[in-house]
Amino acid sequence: MSRLIFRKVLALLFSLFFVSSLTFLLMQAVPGTPFLEEQGVPEEVLQSMYHHYGLDQPWYVQYGKYIKGLITFDLGPSMRYEGITVAKVIKEGFPISCFIGIEALCIALLMGISLGTLAAIRKGKWQDHVCMLIAVVGISTPSFVMATVLQFFLAMKWEIFPVARWGSFAHSLLPALSLAALPAAFIARLIRANMVEELEQDYVQTARSKGVTERDVIFKHVLKNSMLPVITYLGPLTSSILTGSFVIEKIFGIPGLGRWLVKSITNRDYTLIMGLTVFYSSVLLITVFSIDLLYVWIDPRIRTNPRREQ
Amino acid sequence: MKEQSTALNPALHPEGSVKQSYSYWKQACGHFKHNKSVLFALCFLFVLLLGAILIPCFSERTYYDMHLYLKNSPPGRMFWLGSDELGRDIFTRIWWGARISLFVGISAAVIDMIIGVFYGGLGGMIGGRVEELMMRVSDVLYSLPHLLIVILLMVSMKPGIAAIIASLTITGWVNMARIVRGQILQIKQSDFVMAAHLLGASKWRILTRHLLANSIGSIITTMTFTIPTAIFSEAFLSFLGLGVQAPMASWGTMASDGLPALRYYPWRLFFPACFITLTILAFNLVGNGLRDAFDPRLRK
Asked: Are the beta carbons of B241 and A262 separated by less than 8 Å?
């Protein structure tokens, strides 16, 4: 058990190191310099700007400084906005993005589990077909399409929700819903497939013949066992919500991290791109790591026999 | 060699395996054909492909023709699906966009397949420590956040279709390699592989004729699912402003351009968005159909 955790921690550290080095490497490979577009700037000013950002030093010095900065969470200043550091952007933007993300996660789980359960217990009936149709359409709809459709109808035409901006809980509902749609559809299919399989197990028959009510069979036994694979999906789910937030925050004008990333891409604000990507990757890798641990803790089959996870 | 292939070729066996082996593809085909939604999706994709090839060739309009006095016109007789902020015909632009989307999707899937099968197959053939190492590498790559790396790659490359395909395949092949490897590990255990091995078949022959040949179902299914993922990623990147360059337009860029005008000229966003969704949906349906057809365990 402890060996398993040790191995996972090592893998996590390696991935973190790998992804931050890759980011550094890719940013070094960008053709030209970040200040290429600034026209009519005298040579001395350019030189002092290079010096200010440490760009006049050899790459290994820059790399060392970069890694040291990552460890101390000093990700450097933004190259486009005066007086704004990457750390500050993260500090202000992350809580907002995190709030919407967690809300989306809850909606996705709730919707996915209910749709999937309904489909599984009504397998082959019209409820099943409707749920699975919703699911396959949901899986095929990119979040920005979902977001714009919801925004157009629910906010602009029928004016149920605020169109954009950030402020109250109502502002967060539409973005969260559009982020949740795709994972919800995925979870629904996952739950249905697992439940259909679980329902054929012997223990279900035992429970039924003992006289356990159908509701208890479904919710206390079958659903619980069908949830396990959903936990493994939590990693890709987080990733989907995270990357989805880039476009969602752009569409709804939310001042979260995703919006900053999009802005930094359009502005070619390299330090910001770099810092945000590394931050995002770390969040994602750490989430996946925690989910792995959670899974080991929940499923005794892995705990007692580590080989099974392979 | 001849005897060996006779012994291993199930079609020459008098009974038992003949039926099973012969009917695998036939069963798969039959199952596939009876799936109505799959047929519908295939028809849609066929029309889309045909339109993407033909309409830009024969249309009098191009994706860059501007009618500045007819900006933002709603769908009508002049512009079937309306026009955008520079008076460009959305209908024509959608078919040009279809070319880009389909091209990106299909080439990403094919390149992923080639690299993935090569990597997974090579690992499966060599085995031992090297395979272990190769799979560790792919595990690490698999755990990385793909879309973020694609974004980074796009930022550091010269924008264009080639950059999109390159960055999608750099991150995408790992999935295929893992699936091929999983299949090979599973099939390697089978008796017929052991039999072939005992009969003196070379590693290469076992790999190509037995291991990969029996993984084709999974490979095709995975490829079919790669296409919509690539199309989605392209649209996503274009939506973020990292896609093809103006005046070229993919569905993602058209949707992105239409976003600020959503309230008053919704058609500028809705038609490209609609095409993205329908195309991804169609590929997903075909992929589901293929998976069900190739994997009898899933036929429930």
From this structure: yes
